[in-house]
Amino acid sequence: MKSETSVKTTERLEWGDINWKKVERRLFRLQKRIYKASKRGDFKAVRYLQKLLLKSWSAKVLAVRSVTQDNQGKNTAGVDGVKSLCSQARINLVGQLTLGAKPKPTHRVDSTETVVNAPSRNGEQTIFCRAGQGLVRLALEPEWEAKFESNCYGFRPGRSCHDAIKAISNHLESEPKWVLDTQITKCLSDRINGDRLLDKLGTFPKLRRQIRAWLKSGVMDGKQLFPTKEGTPPGGLIQPLLAHIALHGIEEDILKMADQLSGREPVNRHQLCLIRYADKLVILHQDAAVIHHSQQVIREWLKPWGLELKPEQTRIAHTLDGEDAGFDFLGFHIQQYRVGKYHSGKDRKGKSLGFKTIIKPSRNAVTEHYKLLARVIDAHQAAPQAALIRRLNRIILRWSNYYSTVVSKEVLNKLDYLLFGKLRRWANRRHPHQSEKWVANKYWQSIDNRNWAFAVRGHEEIALFKHSQIHIFRYVKGKEAASAEDGNLSYGSTANCGNYQ
């Protein structure tokens, strides 16, 4: 197969003339071939196709686009001081993007530690480094997507927070469970054993040397260089993928433990559920002894990697009984409540379960969201009403959409009530010498069958979006074995769309 670099020349191409649909199709075909080769265990084909992808012009332009246009941190300057690139600079970066370049040390930012202490790996890298990591991620991701465990979520294509929550909900449908809710300390920063990670990657020498160079690039704190002996490269696109690779296998080992507990009858692995979202873990089982034993197994599993469970984030509870029943995960509170037979679900035999599983926004998430709204309103005390509405709408829509798949109607109505009172105080402080009726007529309107809508009329009509306006729907979890790189386009185009109640 002829390399794209032989038919593409960066000098005669403009960034705005790139056919992005064609470029994405080319990359997808390569990634699909890597995925299928990895799935069938043909690692010779995997390495050949990865080398082909790393030389591909299409992969390089998409890697550059991901760090200069698509990424949320695209306007954040790196250690090289480059915050944005013009079209010609992006084309030049594509031509320079090759493996083997020595990376510059990560620049430490927002540090609260003194220089004499071991530095945090939170920082920024050069835009060249970030683009290189994006290119390597495009090559490694399809290989490992074919290997990753079914209940592994977070920073993976086609797998969201809602998939993880739905997996928990599905496992709690038939009976109450004991739960271990925990988090792995600094899994996404500076604690992973780099040599062990490279051995687990098992990639070809040139790519191994490049990843090793990123791992050992060091951290700059002011003018002082701190060498790094462990950890994943921060500030880059490859960091979450390397963390997933390091933690791959923990679910299977926990399931084997459940099947082989000494002194007990074999436990069906379908009764135990481990759900991991990046560095957060949830283990569910009806036997408290299995949960406690799982905690010990995880601690022993993490030791060779230089990782451990975060004590303040580790909690064992029951989903139905006890004063502290239920648990929080990814901003959701999951708990079971005893109900009568007319409100209870039924098992496979048609018998009433006597409880109901309810998932709703966690108390901390609601509190933090309202505090953010209050800070925005206080910061816009002298701003025009339209500016305040635009800022609040972005926050309210994002938050309400996130919780639109669970039992959140009551919480959304309460937030609207609290926000109305905060806005009344905001409006009254702007006009201390006017009556409340005059203030209400100025800032609240009747729009689209809505009374008391916080809105602006005139040449620019804009109204505040209420939390309770969001549609609540039942989320449809994607198939556990499905992947964005498996080539099943008919399923991928319809998955995770949700069914409205």
What does the model show?
By secondary structure, the chain is an alpha+beta fold. It folds into three domains: 12-107 and 119-146 and 193-228, no CATH class; 150-189 and 232-359, Reverse transcriptase/Diguanylate cyclase domain (Alpha-Beta Plaits, 2-Layer Sandwich); 363-467, no CATH class. The chain contains 16 helices and 17 strands. The strands form five sheets. It has a five-stranded mixed beta sheet with strand order 3-7-8-4-9, sandwiched between helices. A four-stranded mixed beta sheet has the order 2-1-5-6, with no helix packed on it. Strand 14 (450-456) and strand 15 form a beta hairpin. Helix 1 (20-39) packs across helix 3 (57-70). The radius of gyration is 26 Å and the shape is globular. The chain starts with 19 loop residues before the first helix and ends with a strand. Residues 109-123 and 497-501 have low confidence and may be disordered. Keywords: Nucleotidyltransferase, RNA-directed DNA polymerase, Transferase. InterPro entries: DNA/RNA_pol_sf, GrpII_Intron_Splice-Mob/Def, Mat_intron_G2, RT_dom, RVT_N. Pfam families: GIIM (PF08388), RVT_1 (PF00078), RVT_N (PF13655). GO terms for molecular function: RNA-directed DNA polymerase activity. This is Reverse transcriptase N-terminal domain-containing protein.
